[in-house]
Amino acid sequence: MASVNESLVGAGEIDGAVMNGEVAYITIEDGKRLKAEVIDVKPGGTIYLQVFEDTSWVKVSDTVEFTGMPLTAKLGPGILGSVTDGLQNPLYELGKIEPFLERGLEVASLDEKVKWHFTPCVKKGDHVTGGSVMGFVPEKIFEHKIFVPFSMPGTYTVVHIADKGDYTVADEIATIRDPGGKTIPLKMAFEWPVKTPMPFHERSVPTKPMPTGIRILDSLFPIAFGGTACNPGPFGAGKTVLQHSLAKYSEADVVIVAACGERAGEAVEVFKDFPKLEDPRTGKSLMDRTYIVGNTSSMPVAAREASVYIATTVGEYYRKQGLNVLMLADSTSRWAQALRETSGRKEEIPGPEAFPMYISTLISAFYDRAGVEILPDGKSGSLSIIGTVSPAGGNFDEPVTQATLLSTGAFWGLSRALSDARKYPAIDRLDSNSSYPSLLSEEEVLSLKALLREGKSIASNIILMGEKGITDETYIQFQKSELVDAVFLQQNSFHEVDGVTDPDRLRMMFDMVWKIVESPVNIHGKDDIRSHFNFLRQAFIDWNTIRPDEEGFEKQEHTILNLIKQGIHAQENV
After folding, report:
1. Where does residue 9 rank: exposed (0-12), middle (13-18), buried (19+ CB within 10 A)?
2. What whole-number distance in Å separates Cα of residue 234 and Cα of residue 254?
3. Is the pLDDT of residue 260 over 80?
């Protein structure tokens, strides 16, 4: 080696190295091999590598071995339910070897001892191409298709296919022959270069709303199956809690959590909680349809970039399975910071705030891997990507946030003021937006936003002039806006009922809250108006915590309706 600068290593003049992707190993004094990736080739042949592990005590005399292969993800049955590091090494298996993760440790990405019950769906003599389904195995709650590797071009003939039975991912389950007569053995699993997007068979526009269970999203700022969303906000505003709720309650088939630089303590909560959580759709463990990439802030910086691409590649693979996949990247800011550190060590010309000049291109390419795919059998799969952004000081004008805004279809901006007021989700009601269709009608969404804008305007006047400076009619409109915010847009994430709202309950709640908005209130005097809406607010909040099939649901509903009638006929009773 020629130089060592933190995670950036110069490997001297070496012929044949491939820029942007080739994996290399650095053998250090104790015999351990540190995984690295070629990221630059300078004039004169000097090769620069980013090392995915701690480079302490690495010497220029250490040797470098180039593999000729790009960084890949191992794809096959056994991914769901697992927790891996940023290089797809299973963390629990690494922990069995060494409780404190040592450098140079590598474990098979997929357990090669587990047997899967394989059922073939092709026979000898059939013609197949890259992406053809050879058979299937049961994986957790899904039927996992076994593919001919997507990277294989042309048409092949099946020479041999395994009988129905139990096999490991290391066993040969088929042999195919190319037109030239060369035979190729196939296994259940194959590898795919993580920085190469999987080609779509047929790409479709995301138009179908994905219910998330979070009312403010499903009504005002929805995301579609195959869509993208940006979730920026200052530290402590609730980004991670929001992502955990999305993972638990959204109607995605598969959830991928990419903890790409998030604080270790928050990631540990996911590792502990998810196996204990019951999937509301199946009654089994939530981990049965979850894959977690744990590359936290306490792990090597260079592996953050790899962790994002590993997670995305797995998401694309399960999209090919015909499933709806939701990928949660937390946080893309720390991924971008890792890119900034590497760029600085490469002595590249810095862009705004020292981020690489090409940061917007990388972010755009990342989100472009989301989408809806129409598969050869006519069915569809989707990959939705939601990335959190942690701008310093909550400054949404910084480069990563701006590049993400230009690349995503929904913007869920978190507000420090709402967070400090203990409002959840603390998504800004007026500055956030979405280009995807809502579970409500377009007219209803516009009416709801208009009410919120009017309420904010009145609130500003109250601050300037006090309640005495506005009319009773205006104050009633302000109270209606505040009630909608309190009982419909806010949720109690810790309550088993109010924490998640399905589409039917959302429609029921909106109809009720809009009945309140459209009903006249014949009450005079600020104190009486405030008292009336306080009773309504509490009655509605109590209703939010009762299941529709529980005793007391209809009674509480009638309580709200009676309060509405009291407001309408209040003047008649005076």
Report:
1. buried
2. 28
3. yes
CATH number at residue 403: 3.40.50.300
SS3 329: strand
- Asked if residue 553 is part of any domain, the answer here is yes
Q: What is the CATH number of the domain that holds 140?
A: 2.40.50.100
Total domains present in the chain = 4
pLDDT over threshold 60, residue 489: yes
Is 157 in contact with 43 (CB distance < 8 Å)? no
Q: Is pTM, for the whole model, over 0.85?
A: yes
Residue 410: half-sphere exposure toward Cβ, Cα within 13 Å: 32
How many whole angstroms separate alpha carbon 106 and alpha carbon 94?
8
Tell me what pLDDT residue 442 has.
96
Instruction: List, for residues 211-245, the tens digit of each pLDDT value.
Output: 999 999 999 999 999 999 999 998 888 888 898 89
One domain, residues 259 and 356? yes
47 and 179 within one domain: no
Confidence of residue 13 (pLDDT cuts 50, 70, 90): low
Does residue 96 sit within a domain? no
Domain check: are 323 and 401 in the same one? yes
**Secondary structure (3-state) at 198:** coil
Residue 88 forms part of a structural domain: no
CATH number of 542's domain: 1.10.1140.10
Structural domain boundaries, residue 379 = 203-209+225-411
CA-to-CA distance for 543 and 29, rounded, in angstroms? Answer: 66
In the structure encoding, which two tokens stand for residue 443, read together?
Answer: 């007219």
Q: Where a domain ends, among 411, 429, 451?
A: 411
Q: What percent of the chain has pLDDT over 70?
A: 97
331's torsion region: left (phi>0), alpha (psi -120 to 50) or beta? beta
Are the C-beta atoms of 462 and 455 separated by less than 8 Å? no
Pairing of strands 63-70, 22-27: antiparallel
Half-sphere exposure of residue 524: CA atoms within 13 angstroms, side-chain side:
4
| Distance between start and end Cα atoms, the chain | 91
Tens-place pLDDT, residues 466-482: 998 999 999 999 999 99
| Residue 47, domain member (yes or no) | yes
Radius of gyration of the chain (CA): 27
**Is it true that the peptide bond before 364 is cis, omega within 30 degrees of 0?**
no
Please state, in angstroms and rounded to a whole number, the distance separating the CA atoms of residues 93 and 82: 10
- State whether 123 and 65 are in the same domain: no
Two structure tokens written together for 110: 């997929």
CA–CA gap between residue 258 and residue 280 (Å, rounded): 22
- Specify whether 406 is located in the same domain as 497: no
Q: Are residues 451 and 510 in the same domain?
A: yes
State whether 295 and 390 are in the same domain. yes
Per-residue burial over 68-80, b = 16 or more CB atoms within 10 Å of its CB, e = otherwise: eebbbbbbbbbbb
Question: E strands within 149-276?
Answer: 155-161, 165-167, 172-177, 183-187, 190-193, 203-204, 228-232, 254-260
Give the DSSP letter of residue 356: B
Minimum mean pLDDT among 3-7, 180-184, 371-375, 530-534: which range?
3-7
The three-class DSSP label of residue 195 is coil
* Rounded distance between C-alpha atoms, residue 132 and residue 136, angstroms: 12
Residues 557 and 485 in one domain: yes
What CA–CA distance (Å, rounded) separates 332 from 304?
A: 9
